[in-house]
Amino acid sequence: LSNFESSLESALSSSQNVYGENSTSYASTLIDVAAIYNTYGNYREARSYTIKARDILQKTNQLTDVLKGKLALTEAEAMTGQGYCNGAIALLRSV
User: Fold this and answer.
1) C-alpha atoms less than 13 angstroms from C-alpha of 6 in its C-beta half-sphere
2) pLDDT in tens, 18-76
3) Distances (CA, A) of 19 to 13, 27, 44, 51, 64
């Protein structure tokens, strides 16, 4: 796709401008972008976005069970794609 990365960056920028850098909505957008990167096989990028989302949610004390599950599922998929299957299973079991 020709403008794949720029479209995702634009979506993240818009979300950050609308909701703020420390909001649940922005963190949820980061998780959604990570899921898109998983779909296209860029697992390293996906994990970096899940880490950013987790940091925001923990820093602002907004990590609900629903977001924790969504985050774990997305990160475990990226970990599996990178070959860290045992770590992914451990992560999913922790949730």
Assistant:
1) 3
2) 988 888 999 999 999 999 999 999 999 999 999 999 999 999 999 899 999 999 999 99
3) 10, 10, 26, 19, 18
Alpha carbon distance 14, 63 (integer Å): 22
pTM of the entire structure?
0.89
Q: DSSP string of 27-51?
A: HHHHHHHHHHHHHTT-HHHHHHHHH
Give the C-alpha distances (Å, rounded to integers) separating 32 from 29, 86: 5, 24
Distance CA(17)–CA(56), nearest Å, equals 15
Token pair for residue 40? 């296209």
The count of residues in the chain is 95
DSSP calls for 20-33: -TT-HHHHHHHHHH
